[in-house]
Amino acid sequence: MDWGMKNRLSQLMPKGRCFFMPIDHGYFQGPTTGLEKPGETIRPLLPYVDAVFCTRGVLRAAIDPEINKPVILRVSGCTSMVGKDLANEEITTSIEEVIRVNAAAVGVSVFIGSDYEKETLKNLSDLVNVCENYGIPVMAVTAVGREMEKREARYLALCCRIAAELGARVVKTYWCEKDFDKVVRGCPVPVILAGGPKCETEREVLEFVHDGMANGAAGINLGRNVWQSPNPVAMARALRAVIHKNASVNEACELFNQTKKEKARG
Length: 266
Ligand code: 5RP
Known about the structure:
Mean pLDDT: 96
CATH class: Alpha Beta
Order of helices and strands: HEHHEHEEEHEHEHEHEHEHHH
Helix content: 40-55%
Shape: globular
CATH topology: TIM Barrel
CATH superfamily: Aldolase class I
Bound molecules: ribulose-5-phosphate
Largest sheet: 8 strands, parallel, barrel
């Protein structure tokens, strides 16, 4: 592996583990709850995360260029919640732009099993062909659009493996209760967990993240369950402990409660 690629990956994933903070949701769903002012949402969370995942538009308009965190640029899009098909994505960003904003990596969605399977896999391959020339890792996002029921091990394993075969350096996928270890084992590059819609309780989030890590995930890319929580900093701190300090679910919950109390006291 080239020095630049290694250097970027080691910044993004210290000791092979990562907590990425996605604030890219607006690229297809508009002003998402909690992300109306993405710069303000992310500021208190930055100390706890390893990288920020966003589009070039939000980066330029809302993120301080002096932040000392790597940026993963969302470079697929051109669809919306109110359009015909979320899967019909294109590559939105040139390599010149990726380099201009000093992105440490790029993220692209693939919609396997959809009408646009081939096009989105071609997006991934094209991006890998260009980004590898510059030592920029590509993160594949195995997206399911509105079909959340697709999130089971056989399908996820298929998606992760295909994305890795096409050259993704990291694959983001959903956690599943049964056989998540098989998803990870079938993928030759690190697998990281996406969040999905907000869970009922904080403990539920910490439990699925802990289980994913115990079954081989390298980290998380988890947004709504952090910044839509009434206690986003406490949540980020607790998740960081699970990812980087091997905290148990009980230890992470304790840290969550302790941080919540500290914040309430001011
Ligand atoms: C959207 C994405 C998001 O980065 C991903 O969904 C993670 O965010 P959340 O934890 O809120 O689901 O890739 O396509």
